[in-house]
Amino acid sequence: MHQLGKRALATSIRDPYNALISVRANPKPGNGPLAPLTWTAKDNITTTEEPTTCASAILKNYYSPFDATVVRLLNEAGATLLGKNNLDEFGMGSSNTNSAFGPVKNPLYEEFRVAGGSSGGSAAAVSGELCDFSLGTDTGGSVRQPASYCGILGFKPTYGRVSRWGVVAYAQGFDTVGILARDFAVLRRTFDVIDKYDEKDVTSMPIWIRKKFGAAFLPEKLKIGVPHEFLVGEMSEETRSEYFATLRNLQDSGHAIIPVSLPSIKKALPAYYTLVSASAASTLSRFDGVRYGVSIKPEYPETIVSTNRSKGLGIEVQRRTLLGNFTLSSESGDHFVQATKIRQSLVEEMNDVLTFPNHLLNTPENPDGVHVLVAPTAFGEAPTIEDYKSACKSSLVNGYINDIMTIPASLAGCPSISVPMRNRRYGLQVMSQYGYDHFLLKAAELIEAHR
Ligand code: GLN
């Protein structure tokens, strides 16, 4: 791993966590509903004033000619951008150790523990109080899992609610811009600004669907579904006991805790990695040092693309590119189709257990269903960097397996938020039906009050 060093590191920001890749030279205080809040952006969200590196050596000098739509909206609302956050290269990872700019340190601990990933820099910046909120991206858990490790809120809205225009793609059918914050008030104000239709993003949720969700009212008695598939053997005792304590408190206050089953959760992990690797192999092919990125002049010109990509892309990105290209090849059989079917089954199972209709698929309301689903966000607290690295060394799968907790909401495209439990080192995840983001935020706030 090469350390590339920081740019324009203003003396006014102390960053003991390596949460920032660049710092804005002259942050301007804004005017508007979000003033005087300060924020940072994951470095796969384009800004014109600083490079957008995606924590990759191949993009270390890349300047975007435009700001992402979310950056423009936040600017117009008066929020002040302070800098760009470290991440796992192109969003691939769960620990922020796959970065050309070095790993991020978790602010909750004295010793070096990982901040989670891939939006580890965003989570550390918010948890370490370098800014009021941060925007990350969540493809399979990258906002929720680092939020859980760093003791803050991490919200992945419904797929399509927030514009992806100007956000460097990892897997286009999953990537969702999310918000990391320390409290619900800031998180909601931010969401209200970026929750907009954008004609520049072909996957932006159309206005006619947005109108269907109406105002969100919490019922007196919330019906909370507990999918047993999430209670896996790998989960730590502490996580379990924190989780059960919250469920007990909710039950004591008269809310209903209802066991439910979504069998496809068991197959979600391989389905997700099959689909996102295929997508990444395709979207990342543009980074060849010819159209985008750094070019290393090779001895033999015909090797220019392979040389640039071998030197410019990190090992995890190369691994997934190989896997994705294999999946898309005729030799791989029908992995892609099988994975797509698992995704579809999971959506159907969600529609069966949740009470709200899925307006995208025109499913009916289900009076016997639950309002939200809950689960821990991760198996345990943040591991030390040594433990994490040695676990990945003994088996690569150990780097992926934690994602089983967050991937189902990503496959379903539904909104999901991680809320710190009574012990901040653990997070509880709350999910709801497609489009019911405002309901979800209210329910999650109620659940937070019962931890
Ligand atoms: N850890 C998952 C992955 O590497 C999720 C990453 C993300 O949400 N960007 O794909």
UniProtKB/TrEMBL annotation:
<dbReference type="InterPro" id="IPR000120">
    <property type="entry name" value="Amidase"/>
</dbReference>
<keyword id="KW-0436">Ligase</keyword>
<comment type="subunit">
    <text>Subunit of the heterotrimeric GatFAB amidotransferase (AdT) complex, composed of A, B and F subunits.</text>
</comment>
<dbReference type="GO" id="GO:0050567">
    <property type="term" value="F:glutaminyl-tRNA synthase (glutamine-hydrolyzing) activity"/>
</dbReference>
<feature type="domain" description="Amidase">
    <location>
        <begin position="30"/>
        <end position="441"/>
    </location>
</feature>
<feature type="active site" description="Charge relay system">
    <location>
        <position position="118"/>
    </location>
</feature>
<keyword id="KW-0547">Nucleotide-binding</keyword>
<dbReference type="InterPro" id="IPR023631">
    <property type="entry name" value="Amidase_dom"/>
</dbReference>
<dbReference type="GO" id="GO:0032543">
    <property type="term" value="P:mitochondrial translation"/>
</dbReference>
<keyword id="KW-0496">Mitochondrion</keyword>
<dbReference type="InterPro" id="IPR036928">
    <property type="entry name" value="AS_sf"/>
</dbReference>
<dbReference type="InterPro" id="IPR004412">
    <property type="entry name" value="GatA"/>
</dbReference>
<feature type="active site" description="Charge relay system">
    <location>
        <position position="42"/>
    </location>
</feature>
<dbReference type="GO" id="GO:0070681">
    <property type="term" value="P:glutaminyl-tRNAGln biosynthesis via transamidation"/>
</dbReference>
<dbReference type="GO" id="GO:0030956">
    <property type="term" value="C:glutamyl-tRNA(Gln) amidotransferase complex"/>
</dbReference>
<dbReference type="GO" id="GO:0005524">
    <property type="term" value="F:ATP binding"/>
</dbReference>
<dbReference type="InterPro" id="IPR020556">
    <property type="entry name" value="Amidase_CS"/>
</dbReference>
<keyword id="KW-0067">ATP-binding</keyword>
<comment type="similarity">
    <text>Belongs to the amidase family. GatA subfamily.</text>
</comment>
<dbReference type="Pfam" id="PF01425">
    <property type="entry name" value="Amidase"/>
</dbReference>
<feature type="active site" description="Acyl-ester intermediate">
    <location>
        <position position="142"/>
    </location>
</feature>
<dbReference type="GO" id="GO:0005739">
    <property type="term" value="C:mitochondrion"/>
</dbReference>
<protein>
    <recommendedName>
        <fullName>Glutamyl-tRNA(Gln) amidotransferase subunit A, mitochondrial</fullName>
        <ecNumber>6.3.5.7</ecNumber>
    </recommendedName>
</protein>
<keyword id="KW-0648">Protein biosynthesis</keyword>
<comment type="function">
    <text>Allows the formation of correctly charged Gln-tRNA(Gln) through the transamidation of misacylated Glu-tRNA(Gln) in the mitochondria. The reaction takes place in the presence of glutamine and ATP through an activated gamma-phospho-Glu-tRNA(Gln).</text>
</comment>
